[in-house]
User: Which sequence fits this backbone?
């Protein structure tokens, strides 16, 4: 029996579905914290204040992208930047109290949205998806 679709078509469908789910999460996030901002705040919560370059590396983002994100988050009061005492050219980023509250709210909202999306699957489908994701994430 021939498969319904080929790997490229299935991959495209996966990406489309993933983007749709990400939009749903972002639309429901509170306090102006998107999924991308939540990831930045999570790294800061885990590591504490870090150089922007380390933050970019932890997230797999380009330095320019992290700079733009951090600047916007700083304007919104979610993070603060200060000169690195060891290297005055570098900036250290830290979450503010407002950023920590936004992270808590954002994580809770994100979990609720993801739960509502993925609870449409029965336990066997959810297990199969989890196994497929494991296979896709192997290097």
Assistant:
């Amino acid at each position: 029996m021939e498969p319904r679709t080929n790997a490229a078509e299935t991959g495209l469908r996966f990406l489309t579905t993933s983007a749709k789910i990400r939009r749903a999460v972002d639309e429901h996030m509170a306090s102006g914290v998107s999924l991308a901002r939540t990831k930045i705040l999570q790294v800061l919560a885990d590591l504490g204040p870090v150089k922007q370059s380390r933050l970019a590396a932890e997230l797999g983002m380009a330095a320019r992208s992290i700079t733009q994100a951090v600047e916007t988050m700083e304007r919104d009061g979610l993070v603060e930047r200060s000169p690195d005492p060891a290297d005055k050219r570098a900036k250290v980023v830290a979450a503010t109290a407002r950023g920590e509250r936004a992270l808590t709210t954002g994580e809770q909202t994100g979990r609720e949205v993801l739960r509502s999306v993925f609870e449409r699957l029965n336990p066997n489908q959810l297990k199969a998806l989890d196994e497929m994701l494991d296979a896709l994430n192997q290097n």
Q: What stands out?
A: The longest helix spans residues 7-28. The chain is about 65% helix and 10% strand. Residues 36 and 139 are 24 Å apart (CA to CA).
